[in-house]
Design brief:
The protein is an alpha+beta fold and about 220 residues long. The protein has two domains: about 130 residues, no CATH class; about 90 residues, Roll (Nuclear Transport Factor 2, Chain: A), CATH 3.10.450. It has six helices and nine strands, in the order ααααββββααβββββ. The strands form two sheets. Strands 5, 6, 7, 8 and 9 form a five-stranded antiparallel beta sheet that branches. A four-stranded antiparallel beta sheet has the order 1-2-3-4.
């Protein structure tokens, strides 16, 4: 297969970004999986991109992962989604939810829990649920602090349970998404001692305005 020059890939990526800006957004057409017979080679190519992540110049990593996907048959829409995630993930399922939608994805570079959730078609174009969750530590929640009195090493593990996703329409026309995150006793593989519910809010125009800990419950 003839290799496409990286400058051409950058141009195609820029055109895909312009298409998003024009309002075409992401949909089920961005969902992609490598063919079974190509999976081992695809993962080898992605690992090579991962090896260059730390020392690569800005944009180089996402161009590398986009090229790996293209080489294994990914359409332009799938590569555009990968670019929107910074090269970190490719889409595996799409859920239409309104102005802002939900994309399930796989992150081959994640050490724990490769499955990911992104809010798409708002601003920014792709918001990582787990990345936003990592910015909160639960310290503002009295219920979480109370739980820590029993489990001093407890922390909220920043990986959402996809099956817990719920969406409510706000009075101002925005969207409020809630997702459950496990509370673990010291490490990601340790006992689960509770569950935290995070709320992600987008205004009526689809702008992401922030995340908060909406509820904390100890495990029965």
């Amino acid at each position: 297969m003839r290799k496409v020059p990286w400058m051409v890939l950058l141009l195609l990526s820029a055109l895909a970004t312009l298409a998003l800006a024009a309002g075409k957004g992401f949909d089920a057409g961005a969902v992609w999986q490598p063919k079974q017979k190509d999976q081992e080679k695809f993962w080898d190519d992605m690992r090579q991109c991962g090896a260059m992540m730390a020392g690569g110049s800005p944009g180089t990593f996402e161009v590398c992962t986009g090229e790996a996907m293209r080489k294994h048959g990914a359409p332009a829409s799938a590569i555009a989604f990968n670019k929107a995630t910074g090269g970190n993930a490719y889409a595996t399922a799409f859920r239409e939810m309104g102005t802002v939608d939900v994309m399930e994805a796989l992150n081959p570079f994640q050490a724990n829990s490769n499955d990911q959730i992104y809010f798409v078609n708002g601003t920014p174009a792709a918001v990582s649920v787990d990345a936003e969750a990592m910015k909160l530590d639960g310290s503002a929640s009295p219920a979480f602090l109370a739980l820590q009195k029993t489990y001093p090493n407890a922390f909220i593990f920043p990986h959402a349970k996809a099956g817990s996703l719920q969406m409510a329409q706000a009075k101002d026309g925005g969207q409020s998404f809630t997702l459950a995150f496990p509370i673990v006793d010291g490490c990601h593989a340790c006992a689960r001692v509770g569950e935290a519910t995070y709320e992600f809010y987008f205004d009526a125009a689809g702008n992401f305005t922030g995340t908060k800990v909406a509820a904390v419950a100890a495990r029965d």
